[in-house]
Structures are given as structure tokens and as C-alpha cells.
Amino acid sequence: MRPLAIIGIGQTPVDEHWNYSLRELAGFAALDALNDAGRANVDGIFVGNMLSGALSGQQHLGTLLADWLQQHQAEAVKIEAACGSGAAAFRAALMAVASGEMDSALAVGVEKMTEAGGSETTSALATAADADYEAGVGLSFVAINALVMQRYMHEYGWKHQDFATFSINAHANGARNPNARLQFKITPEQYAKEKMVASPINLLDASPVGDGAAAALIVPLEMAVGNPKAVHVLGAASATDSLAVHDRFDPLWLSAAALSAQKAYQMAGVTPKDINLFELHDAFSIMSALSLEACGFAERGQGPRFAIENDISPTGKLPICTQGGLKARGHPVGATGMYQIVEATAQLRGEGGANQVPDARIAMTQNIGGSGATILTHILGKSA
With contact defined as beta carbons under 8 Å apart, do 35 and 77 qualify? Predict the structure, then answer.
């Protein structure tokens, strides 16, 4: 398999994009990535998306985007893996280029969510859960995560306020990110007083929906020699767990996160101690704690303590969600994994802006589909 590099990135702000269609959002991010790479054409286009059929009445997104970009010579497909669709598209593009089938591939994540009503969006998101035994009995994703958080607090003795650091950090970073949906800081007092959505999850534990797209252009590493913008793809892995949380041997352990992380570490030849920043999937604050534990950064049951005692800001021991994460940048579900890739790439290039991580050389991203059913981990390295 050929070593790979990212040579172009692009993104749109996460917002309510009333004036732009799904194809335009994807197209803007894709064009930015192509222009950033100095390329006019690609061999393949892989579009990550979850809800286009349900909320936009549009499928066939690969060809839709290829047509808009006038890339009719390119192979083009849509990839769906719930909220992990963006990273799944990136992984598909990686495999296409690494295998030698293609010499360039564009991975794009896109989602348009704000034009639908709240109940419609909630119902559409629930299709990533078990339709018979979770969604079918009225469980939304916030309810599923609330049950997990309740159990975690019961098992390990944490209180709701102990999770505040995750949200405070995300909002502090989002306030300095011009592409973020929620560009404001929050205080511990605000976190404590915010209204509950599904106890113990309140509004400041949960990520907001949004419209947006992000993209990256991948080529063989040999074609990126001498390119100062190139970022190496060091590790890539995907793993799955049961679709329903109640079918897991341990509902408080993200086994797919642990497995995909270990595979990615092995491929990259690194350990958790080598990671300079971690773009984790903080759809809910409980997922931040579980991800840190599964990936080897914190002991079991000690995710909140890690955040409290080890600085997770861009200048801290392990920076996480450096541009606001899902919590403040926003969570346009099918695009989220690609936002993580773009943000990590920018950090390694030294283009992190006000949230730049000093001396960042190795970055990890982790995108989660469902409540931990599909998890993709990628490790990127700064060009020498």
C-alpha cells in the first residue's frame, strides 16, 4: 500500500446556510481544497453524508457533486456511516489511492440540517440507532447518551458539574474560530444553570446541528515531496460495535474506539504519549470522557478527571477539540469527520490561527457513527 498525503483542504463555516443548497456547500469546500492543492482534476470523489435523502430529498451525492465541479471523468460515490460518514468517506478515499487504483481522491463531508423542523431532524438522526429496539421505543440520541451518562455517574461517582470542563474548553476554542457555529465562551455557572434536555444532559452538554461542508485532497506521498502544505497520513482504522447500546458487553466502554485507535497507533508507529492534539467526537460531553478512556489517554472512569487536571486547551498537555469540536464548531453530522481532518491538517501546517497548538507534529482524529457503533480513527503527521 502506498504512503499518502493530504495536499489540499477546504471548509465552509458551520451555520444556517439558507442561501446555499447541499451541492453548493459541498462544492464550495471541494473547490477550496482543489485550489489549496493547486489541482484542477481528481480521479475520485467520495462524499460523506447521512441525511440528504431524509432532509433534502436528494441522494446520489457523488454524481451531484462531480457534476457541479465539472469532474465528469471522476469516479464518484456517497458514503454513509451515520455521524461517522465524513471520516468513512475519507477512509474510502485513502484506500482508493493507497491501493494504486487512483492517484488522487477528494473526500468531502456535507450536511444540511437547519431547514427541517426540530422533530423531523431528531427523527432522522434516530435512524442511526437500532430501529426496532431503540428508536422504535422512543429513544432519541440525546436520550441514549443520557442513559449512558447516568450509568457512568452512578458507577464512578461523578457529578454533572464534573463534566463542565469539556464544554468550557470547546466554547473557548469555538469563540476564536471564525468557522464555528457557536462563537462565545461559557462559564461554570452557566453550565450549571442551563436547562436539561434529557437528564443529566443539558443544553451545554450537547452539540448543535448546522449546515456545512469540509474537504481534503489525497495523493500518494511521492507526489507531495517538497510540498510545504503536505500532511502525511500515518494511520487509519475503522471498527464497529453493536448498533444498540444495550447489546454491548459493557455500555461504558467504546470498544470500537479502542480497537480503531490501537490499529491506527500501530500503523503510525506511535503511542498516546506521542499525540500532540486530539480532535475527538464530543457530540455529548459523556462521549468526550469515554473517548479519552478508550484511546488510552485516561484510566477507566477517569475521563472527567483527565480534563480537570490535565489542561485540554490548545496550549495544554493534550489539546482536544481545538477549533471548538462538535460542541461549539457545530455538528453537521455527515460533515463532522471531515471538519476534524481539515482542522487537524491546519494545525500541523501551523494554520490553527488563534487556537494554534504550539509545535504540533502528530494529530489524531476520531469520528463516531451512532452511539459508538462505527468509529474511525486517523493519525496525521507534519511534513518533515
Answer: no
